[in-house]
Amino acid sequence: MKWERMPLGPIETNCYIVWNEGNKNEALIIDPGGDANKLSQWIESNTIQPIAILLTHTHFDHIGAVDDIRKKYSIPVYVHKEEEHWLNNPEMNGSAKYPMIPDLFVNKADKIIAGEKKMTIGSFTFEVLETPGHSPGSISFYFEEASIVFSGDALFLGSIGRTDLFGGNHQQLLHSIHNKLLPLPEETKVASGHGNLTTIAREMDSNPFLNGF
Predict the structure, then answer these.
(1) Is pLDDT of 166 > 70?
(2) Which of 17, 137, 184, 209 is the 20 to 30 A CA-CA neighbour of 74?
């Protein structure tokens, strides 16, 4: 399995493209936050074949290119049930909060994720971890064989997600990190919604927001 990080959209949210070379370059697109043309040009130039869009959560900076990419490649969008109504609600997805951001209305998701589970989409098998706190429906995607977790805005290099947006809960976020992410193998790479890559071991050792929980 290969993956690529591509900062997109108004605040350079990390979109991730995950693909399998041995299976017709099947790809999952995680959090296409904007710049649909830039993303599709990369996909075309690398002969990638998207088969689904996965959303870690539905804040505006993670969903800006969802409809364009979904339409272009005729692929389904997956979202957690707690946020299935956020996509077309600017108050919930946060776009109404910022005057410089147009109110964002995204069509409803095609597939609803309910509960923690192992999922198989095409040639990919991964685990869905419920990691609420940054938002009620925040989830992380753990690919055990590749030793990587796509954590959305739950856990960052040296930081954690903000909880002052609609539905945020600081204690819930800390609980999610300590009970769902930190128990992963220490060598697991953490691919966050913003910023650079880190590891579970590094955040256990040095993340100042996790001390004393």
Answers:
(1) yes
(2) 137
